[in-house]
Amino acid sequence: MDKLVKNGTQFTQMYSSHRCSPSRAMALTGRYAFRSGMGSFPIAREVPFGMNTQDKTLPEYLKEVGYDTHAVGKWHLGVCNSSYLPTSRGFDTFYGHYSGAVDYRGHFIKRSKNFYHDFFDNTIEQHKLDLESDGQWTTDLFRDRTIDILKEAKRSKTPAYVYLAFNAPHEPTRAPADLIARILEKHPNLP
Fold this sequence. Notes:
CATH topology of the domain at 58-186: Alkaline Phosphatase, subunit A
Family: Belongs to the sulfatase family.
Largest sheet: 4 strands, mixed
Protein name: Sulfatase N-terminal domain-containing protein
Cofactor: Ca(2+)
Domain Sulfatase N-terminal: 2-179
GO molecular function, one term: sulfuric ester hydrolase activity
């Protein structure tokens, strides 16, 4: 870590977009959103672009110095072809959803009249849908996977970089039933 700090770039000022995709692209590339291909808006799943594939990402740099790299959670930086996916952008593994927002328990996306499942576990097989996670809260799944990655890094003594992007607080806004019950117990008159 000391070598990385000594030889790396230190940012003393940064301006971030107020939107999710551009901000995350900036964090991964170190470039302003308009230079990273993200503009000032989040992208739809269907658009034929994403985070600029010519820009080298932080996990790509970290892999060069021996880090294992993992992306967990929301990607939403381009899915129109495999060159935009996390495992093509420097990550060894990806566990999460490619789109901007999924149902917290069913892990599906509704587009007009269609629903489709969007939850992937690329630690097993590239582009493998993870249907076994249905019914489990995404925030819990992402937390647990990140803890498992960090435990494995400690055990193997291999440095690890984990990019964790929770889908909360994005729509659809919902809370786990046990959390709602605890709040209503303390504040029974809430609407």
